[in-house]
Design brief:
Elements (H helix, E strand, L loop, with lengths): L11 E6 L2 E11 L4 E11 L6 E4 L6 E4 L4 E2 L2 H12 L9 H25 L1
Antiparallel strand pairs: 1-2, 1-6, 2-3, 3-4, 3-5
Length: 120
């Protein structure tokens, strides 16, 4: 049984690409289409020390293949989210943050497409 199909609304999951993780909150799993509707929270870049956090609470929700997500461990999420949630959400959307999210999703999608093609 695939664990990703057991995601619950409100659960924190992440998408990994190299040294970056996108943490997001599950809104709904669409089983019929194997998709996960998530609300982005924070993009963490582990290349830097300390890791660089990009607040994505103003970003648009995403609908992505459920099998790309992994459940986040409470211990790692609490430390990361406490740093982001300590700051007030910005009143207007941060275009730099949205640009980072867009670039990250493009990289993940490109990697995912290559994996799919390699399987055929």
């Amino acid at each position: 049984m695939d664990m990703s199909l057991d995601f619950q609304p409100g659960q924190i999951v992440f998408l990994k690409y190299r040294d970056m993780n996108l943490y997001a909150e599950v809104i709904q799993v669409v089983l019929s289409r194997q998709l996960c509707w998530v609300r982005p929270l924070v993009l963490v870049d582990y290349i830097l020390e300390p890791p660089h956090l990009t607040d994505l609470r103003d970003a648009s929700d995403l609908l992505w293949p459920v099998n790309l997500f992994q459940p986040a461990l409470d211990t790692e999420v609490i430390a990361i989210l406490s740093q982001v949630l300590a700051k007030e959400p910005k009143t207007e959307p941060d275009s730099g943050a949205k640009q980072k999210l867009h670039q990250f999703m493009h990289l993940v999608w490109h990697e995912y497409q290559q994996e799919l093609e390699a399987r055929d």
